[in-house]
Amino acid sequence: MLPAGTYNMTYQQDMAVIRTRFQWVAFIAFFIFLFTMPLYLPAHWLGIVNTIGITLVAVLGLNILTGYCGQISIGQAAFVAVGAYTAAIMGKNFGLSAWETLPISAISAGVIGLIFGLPALRVKGFYLAMTTLAAQFIITYFFKHGGAFTGGIIGIEVARPVLFGMTIKGEQKFFFLIMFFAIAMTFFAKNIVRTRAGRAFVAVRDNDLAAEVLGINLAYYKLLAFFICCVFAGVAGWLKVYYIGYALTDHYPFMDSIWWLGMLIVGGMGSITGAIFGTTFFILLWEGVAVWSPMLGDAFPGIAGQIFASLGLILTGLVIALFIALEPRGIHHRWELFKLYYRLLPFSY
Q1: Using 50, 70 and 90 to split pLDDT, how confident is the model at 94?
Q2: What angle do the packed helices 171-192 and 272-299 form, to 10 degrees?
Q3: Of 55, 122, 141, 253, which is most buried with the most CB atoms under 10 A?
Q4: Which pTM value belongs to this model?
Q5: Residue 31 falls within a domain, yes or no?
């Protein structure tokens, strides 16, 4: 619903993401605020923002597969590892630059995702989740036991990317690189779901039998969703490996895949805005736990050593459970209600 006095006169206006003058002002103000962060934020907080940006790319891909197409995956961290290790291996063994490894990382993760997405043609739900779980352990086992080619348990050190003769190193320089890709992939995801493929994904999610009756090729669109999801994961892996400077399987644990699904649940599954909300909320929650834990440790010395890990798990699980029970449509739904409220003022009732 649009504010009073705002009308869509053409199809292009109706399909526009940003429609009103106020939205344009808010959009520009947000970008000014975002890209001036390095001027006033300390390195620690820039690191948190960088972590949000990298995680967001992986969660956006998972949102297309699970949120829009309805195919459950709990192996997204493994596909992020594929993108990371591809970049590291191509750089170490073949001498490719960071920018040359970017498309290779994205495509290789997408192809591996297609392979593990093949069971989606025959199974769904819990059984599909188990096949993607297998991807997590198979892929990480291969990288950990790949010998000198993958670095084994030691991993692979990577050189920092160089752009126009400047080495991208440190939180401030990586901030601009990560934000560029986070914004670009958000724009890409937003436009994918507005295309014919995006509408087909939603149809498959809502009722795959009805979608097939309508002429939608289930096999094609399920595999396409897996491919796109893993391309996003490959880009996230590329960003992460150059940001950390090292490719190691311990950086891509199985629990990351679970928490990323939790981010979608809390933020709002099947919504680009929800992916942003959920990712930001969880990472800030974990940062809050890191701040609160020493305080609680001083108050309860007997559990000071275990309180950080336990408090993080307890709060994360509790938040997910509360959202499933009380607001299954996530923060995005509350955001939509708020927008509807202020657009209808003074007749919000």
Answers
A1: confident
A2: 140
A3: 55
A4: 0.91
A5: no
